[in-house]
Amino acid sequence: MTTTAVEASAGTTDRGARMYELIKELYPICRSITGRGVRDTLAILKRSIPLAIAEVPSGKAVFDWQVPDEWSIRDAYIKNSSGERIVDFKKCNLHVINYSRPVRRHMTLAELRPHLHSLPDNPDWIPYRTAYYRDTWGFCVTHRFLERLADDTYEVCVDSELKPGSLTFAELILPGQSPAEVVVYSHTCHPSLCNDNLSALAVATLLAESVARRPRRLTYRFIFGPTTIGSITWLALHESHVDRIRHGLILASLGDRGGLVYKRSRRGNAEVDRVIEYVITRSHGGRCVDFSPYGYDERQFCSPGFNLPVGRLTRTPNGQYPEYHTSADNLDFISPQALERSLQACEAICVALELNARFLNLSPKCEPRLGARGLYQNITGRNPSEFEHALLWVLNQSDGTQDLLQVAIKSGLDLTLIAQAAQALEEAGLLGRCSD
Amino acid sequence: MTTTAVEASAGTTDRGARMYELIKELYPICRSITGRGVRDTLAILKRSIPLAIAEVPSGKAVFDWQVPDEWSIRDAYIKNSSGERIVDFKKCNLHVINYSRPVRRHMTLAELRPHLHSLPDNPDWIPYRTAYYRDTWGFCVTHRFLERLADDTYEVCVDSELKPGSLTFAELILPGQSPAEVVVYSHTCHPSLCNDNLSALAVATLLAESVARRPRRLTYRFIFGPTTIGSITWLALHESHVDRIRHGLILASLGDRGGLVYKRSRRGNAEVDRVIEYVITRSHGGRCVDFSPYGYDERQFCSPGFNLPVGRLTRTPNGQYPEYHTSADNLDFISPQALERSLQACEAICVALELNARFLNLSPKCEPRLGARGLYQNITGRNPSEFEHALLWVLNQSDGTQDLLQVAIKSGLDLTLIAQAAQALEEAGLLGRCSD
Amino acid sequence: MTTTAVEASAGTTDRGARMYELIKELYPICRSITGRGVRDTLAILKRSIPLAIAEVPSGKAVFDWQVPDEWSIRDAYIKNSSGERIVDFKKCNLHVINYSRPVRRHMTLAELRPHLHSLPDNPDWIPYRTAYYRDTWGFCVTHRFLERLADDTYEVCVDSELKPGSLTFAELILPGQSPAEVVVYSHTCHPSLCNDNLSALAVATLLAESVARRPRRLTYRFIFGPTTIGSITWLALHESHVDRIRHGLILASLGDRGGLVYKRSRRGNAEVDRVIEYVITRSHGGRCVDFSPYGYDERQFCSPGFNLPVGRLTRTPNGQYPEYHTSADNLDFISPQALERSLQACEAICVALELNARFLNLSPKCEPRLGARGLYQNITGRNPSEFEHALLWVLNQSDGTQDLLQVAIKSGLDLTLIAQAAQALEEAGLLGRCSD
Fold first, then answer.
1. Per-residue pLDDT at A2
2. Model ipTM value
3. Across the interface, do C392 and B293 touch by the CB < 8 Å criterion?
4. CB B255 within 8 A of CB B194
5. B389 has a chain A CB within 8 A of its CB
6. For A400, which residue in chain C has the nearest alpha carbon?
7. What chains are in contact with B, requiring at least 3 Cβ pairs below 8 Å?
8. pLDDT computed for residue B373 by the predictor
């Protein structure tokens, strides 16, 4: 776990480049909360990791919601009276409001105008808009285009369909020694937007590969699904299972140039919150913010009826960069380096979650003889080594109420060293591990 | 609740002028902890609000105390050998130590001297002194007068009487939907002193008028009584009732030029403490100080056997301005503007106490559909509005353990907006109000 | 308890000089964790205080340890081929590793070299090293000596013996009104080292004299024993007794020029921690640090199976000065003034522990009549005196949950004044003392 070296490496790495290429391949696909785009996306991820795909039928009641009808779109355009496609879904899928209902009509500019959305402050960018639960349609265009639009008769076509089908999500479960679970959720529903959220799909995929290669105490569950309705559906299907979730992490927006930001769970001081704060602020230049109920799928995991220990890792958070939810969130907005650093941070988090545990000193009255067990210097009188300090700290604090991270912070010693000391003491029969 | 505008209005308002006139009328009356002065004062307040007057007979045991005999005074003076009234109660009732026992004697300066009290540091002011529970008498004079007093034979007269009677207090109860009570206590026992405490009598009277005009969730009980023995008597008579006291506020010294100071209850973090801190520090330029057992009637409400959530609102606290308990606490020391601002702060506090409540999210697992209930934007993808943020915050935090003020502080959104969101969610059937 | 005067007195006092002379007498003795050096040391202390000596036989099981065999040493030296004693135990007992096993051999420099220990960074000092539980021997020398050592045949002699005997400790119990105990532990095992720990032996001895002279509420138990194995042995023998330990203090290194440092107990906020922080930071220029499991016998008292309220008072802590555990910790390194100030701080701590208590207001509903009991000014209206404030604070806060120190800190009044107020109220029947 040599995380400090990470920040130094600024060049493109193999893994950074591989994630960037994966995003390039996924970028053109028109994803939504249901439909073929999601399935095509998951099929591409499945080349790297053995995802299990689940389909949940439209109409299924999930808490206060229903799984919606499935949306598919073949084409969409606006033609002027000369028959030119002046807005063309095939050039950029952001042009159509996601879940637009079908329409095929001629209309005046005045009639068309309420269906056009733009960004006056960023006149060259196309906004990303959705209308999942409204019987409506619309187009998103650059503001510069909108301003130049002449009084004409336009042919408007959205060749879409909304009918019963299913909502698709994918899972990969990597069993560990313990059934206690780490959930990693990444949303799959955004169309041609790179940072939000192809970046996280790529990072989660390579993180799953990396976790799969290592021995694990904890069980890992990677979930890929649409935002909001996806996590609501998953939670509804797994309501009796959620007690197993020991830690959870929403991954999103991990490719931009900003520093890492961890948003704490609603609990605010869950183990996952403490571990991630320790890892990203010490070694990855990150910072932490308190929970708020606006964001991604942490909203559902942290709703008061669940209140699960689930936080969120991003670089620049949603809504805090102008390119957010616009066509400017493109391949230029993200970098292989940022993706690589995000992956390294996620790996370091998993390592720290694995290391952290509570122990019980089995010889709790006075210190046990460490020298007799080969754990202490032969000739005494000098200051102890760092490792000897770590042994003393772990023995002294292991009353079953504190985890190793708390001992690391109190002692000022590194978590890795503290964990090595705990392991040595466990092997010497002086320490017993508390159950997960 | 546009409280920010308050600070801007520096001119005399109608209500400020009305309170000032009321104080002018009350100023000459010689009040004490019992007797006619209090009754006359309450009769004047009763013109504005329908006070119920209670008389508690002398000798009644109230905890460690007894209701004292009633004191009345007709006249008091010191005459020199030329027969001139050189000290005259009729000119200023502060001249006589309150509760002075009757005396009529000729005496030398040496005999008289121990009975004269002055303020060497403020030689032109007459101190206010009391001797409720001592069989003694005395006069208060300016230090300049005292220094010039010649060796002479003086005729000393205190034409007072101390005999069984009663202690008088007044109440106004304004019932709300809930029996949970807000107690507002103002002491009535100080003679010709304006800030301490005619200012609070005036503010409490107009506050009662204003509360009476508005719909109320909470029940309000305004109490006007003498300090110390008054609240001790009230608590002794209402011992079985105190569980209903949800919030309490002692009002005193609300007319001087100093900023508002809220003194927290002994609990330190009661709802009333948090609400008043929020209101006065955000919008009324006030500040808060911790509880201490020196002051006014909060001493009794916050004695350890009661420990009620009762704080105190003043401008400059007792003992922290030189005019305190002297003849300089006169009509020049207070202003209609300060009175008006104090009243506005009190009103804002009551509004906030009314707004604040705990709620339970009735759809606590995942977020409920807000769009389907007309509470969320149709086309999504943009950042939510402030009101939408407020809805999310209230839903997420409403687990029955936190009140709206805590949600407001956590979210950084205004309490009024948070309360509006709670109301909208309650009307939509998504939120249930916890009982008071 | 006029502790503020202490800091001003910089000259040598009688008590400072007496402690310094005691240390001078003890300095040459070769102490260890067992053996004659300890017995001789305790015999000298016994001239001042009536210590009870205990001998615990070798081999006795004490938790994870056994009482070791007793070590005695008559002589030790290294002679060169000319027969000169170039290293001589009789000149400095630090020359021999404490608990060195007997050896008598001729050997080359190459054979001898691994048995020689020095301090390259402080080439003129002899280190202090121990090997209590290893079958080994060795010499400690200055680095300058080591570097000059020629290739020669050396005669090496350690004329020591290790055989069953006993471990010696001493106790002085000073009974108080209450069986609740203050334990004061000082370690006796270090040979010719002045600060660590002859300084604490001297301070503890004079502290015991001083405590013995004063009336006591608490019982005091002064323990003099070897470090680590000594406190382990004491705790093993007194396991059923430790519930009586209300406060504990390890004394060590109290003669150097550094300021006082109190190391908190593992609990961190025990009464002893709060009291000592109050005393030494307010009046003795001291500071506090959090518990850590490296140090002296607090390690055993604060092991998780005991977790007793035992802190540690030193001047510069162990390992934080270069002279630590070297021949430079000699009579020049300590001063009578520092010893005297350490003693005064210890006395002030005991006084504060005696004063501190929890009380119950026996008249808890509203304030009781203080004037009627002669505890309040006759003529009221003025600000109360400090003592009157103290009375109000003690009455208001005495709900049985807070001790006088907490009232002192909250009120900003001195603990002594608060304790005087509590005593006056107790005498007036208004306050009841909570049991220890």
1. 38
2. 0.94
3. yes
4. yes
5. yes
6. C304
7. A, C
8. 94
Structure-token match 């051999």, residue found = C105
- Give CA A259 to chain center in angstroms: 15
Q: Can you list the residues of chain B whose pLDDT is less than 70?
A: 1-12
pLDDT, one tens digit per residue, over A260-291 is 999 999 999 999 999 999 999 999 999 999 99
Map C225-280 to HEC letters: ECCCHHHHHHHHHCHHHHHHEEEEEEECCCCCCCCCEEECCCCCCCHHHHHHHHHH
How does B168-182 read in b/e, with b if 16+ C-beta sit within 10 Å?
bbbbbebebeeebbb
Q: What's the confidence (pLDDT) of residue C12?
A: 56
Share of chain C above pLDDT 90, in %: 94
The helix/strand/coil state of B209 is helix
Residues of A in contact with C121 (CB under 8 A): none
B432 contacts chain A (CB < 8 A): no
Q: Which residues of chain A have pLDDT under 50?
A: 1-10
CB-based burial, A32-63: b 16+ in 10 Å, e otherwise: bbbbbbbbebbeebbeebebeebebebeeebb
Whether chain C has a CB inside 8 Å of the CB on B28: the answer is no
Q: What is the largest CA-CA distance in chain A?
A: 95
Task: Give alpha helix (H) positions in B173-324.
Answer: 200-213, 229-237, 271-283, 298-301
For residue A130, give both structure tokens: 């959705």
| CB nearest A304 (choices: B369, B379, B396) | B396
* pLDDT number for residue B12: 56
CB-count exposure of residue C44 (10 Å: 0-12, 13-18, 19+) = middle
The two structure tokens encoding residue A299: 């909203």
pLDDT in the model for residue A224: 98
Question: Which two three-digit tokens encode residue B232?
Answer: 């001790």
pLDDT tens digits, one per residue of C106-149: 999 999 999 999 999 999 999 999 999 999 999 999 999 999 99
Instruction: For chain B, say whether A385 makes contact (Cβ under 8 Å).
Output: no
DSSP assignment letter at B154:
E
Q: How far apart are the first and last CA of chain C?
A: 22
Rg (CA), chain C: 26
Q: What is the mean pLDDT of chain C?
A: 95
C-alpha C390, offset from chain centre? 34
Q: Quote the CA–CA distance of B63 and B234 in Å, as a whole number.
A: 11
Q: What is the pTM of this model?
A: 0.93
